[in-house]
Amino acid sequence: MQQKIWAEFIGTAMLLISVVGSGIMAEALSGGNTGVALLANAIATGCMLYVLITTLGPVSGAHFNPAVTLAFTLRGECKPQQAVLFVCAQVAGGILGVWAAHGMFDLPILQLSTTERSGSAQWFAEVLATLGLLFAIFGGIAKAPGQVAALVAIYITGAYWFTASTSFANPAVTIARSLTDTFAGILPTHAPGFIAMQLIGAVIGAYTLPRLFAND
Q: Long-range CB contacts (< 8 A, 24+ apart) of 113-116?
């Protein structure tokens, strides 16, 4: 269990380092072109996800996401006590990852985002983004277990572009990104709306996707 918790902590930290770090670098090099910056941010995040899921998937299942942990718990595949420990590790790891990214780029470690991300369209996007993520995970486990890392990485890379919210799809990531006033940030007061929609997407996915991918 200790090894699994460390895997969730380190994996989520590395994920946020890639999300925030690539956002900072992309914004600095794109000359104000937000499309180019978003593309670089998406590619870097997808690449890191592939590495993390491939290496840490055999250790903890590579959730790195309270919404994913909730879905597995509702499916009876993760015990509640383990789920609580995983979520704590994910949130703590995400915050540490943001701070590490700030340190790499010589920015103030402690920040609060000022980037507004709210409204019904973005909230609905987060429901769909989270549901789509679970579709990739559960579909991959059921039909292509050797391709889960690639499926998730490709999905998130694409979802950065086809969702109005740029596909946070992760409560731990949302919390962590509220603590960075950089390209990837979200205003702290807007984070709860995103998190609520992500959890709704997780519940929908947990109860509908197993039927879709059932073998009988």
A: 113/177, 113/178, 113/179, 113/180, 113/181, 113/182, 113/185, 113/186, 113/187, 113/188, 114/181, 114/185, 114/187, 115/181, 115/185, 115/186, 115/187, 116/187, 116/190
- CA 97 vs CA 93, 100, 122, 125: distances in Å: 6, 5, 25, 25
pLDDT digits (tens, 9 = 90+) for 81-135: 999 999 999 999 999 999 999 999 999 999 999 999 999 999 999 999 999 999 9
Contact between residue 67 and residue 202 where contact means Cβ atoms under 8 Å apart: yes
Alpha-helical regions (H) of the chain: 2-29, 34-60, 66-74, 80-104, 120-143, 148-162, 171-177, 191-212
Tell whether pTM > 0.85.
yes
DSSP reduced 3-state for 77: coil
CA distance 212 to 55: 28
Q: How confident is the model at residue 137 (pLDDT cuts 50, 70, 90)?
A: very high
User: pLDDT value at position 215?
Assistant: 75
Q: Which residues of 50-65 are buried (b: 16+ CB within 10 A; e: fewer)?
A: bebbeebbeebbbbbb
The pair of three-digit structure tokens given for residue 35, joined into one six-digit string: 């499309």
CA distances for 106 relative to 28, 109, 206, angstroms: 13, 8, 41
Domain boundaries, the chain: 2-212
Q: Which CATH superfamily includes the segment(s) 2-212? A: Glycerol uptake facilitator protein. (1.20.1080.10)
